[in-house]
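In response to the reviewer comment on reproducibility (Comment 2.3), we provide here a single inverse folding case reported in full, input and output, so that an independent group could reproduce the run without further information from us. The structure tokens appear first.
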């Protein structure tokens, strides 16, 4: 079982990026999936999740309106579209099949 995250990088304020998280050994559509992030010196926090079944979504106030979570069942991949990036979005982003499996994290750095 593995979640392989990718798509992070160094960007400027206001830029957009898409993070991807490919699952193997299990099917992402059978779990509620989410993205967490951990900023330097801070605890890991949940930002968004996509519920299995009805595919309802949740977004934290910090990312609501700027981040979009989605899932490609054929590709067994979870995505996070991040728009309007701010320096405070700088963190390591982790995908999870809440909370059973975790990806290795991908670094996103936003400079002003």
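Designed residues, in position order:
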């Amino acid at each position: 079982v593995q979640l392989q995250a990718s798509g992070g990088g160094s960007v400027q304020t206001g830029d957009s990026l898409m993070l991807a998280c490919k699952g193997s050994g299990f099917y992402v559509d059978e779990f509620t999936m989410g993205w967490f992030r951990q900023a330097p010196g801070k605890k890991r926090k949940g930002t968004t999740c996509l519920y299995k079944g009805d595919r309802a979504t949740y977004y934290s106030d910090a990312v609501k309106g700027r981040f979009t979570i989605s899932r490609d069942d054929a590709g067994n991949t979870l995505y996070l579209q991040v728009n309007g990036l701010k320096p405070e979005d700088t963190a390591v982003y982790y995908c999870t099949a809440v909370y059973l499996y975790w990806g290795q994290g991908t670094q996103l750095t936003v400079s002003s």
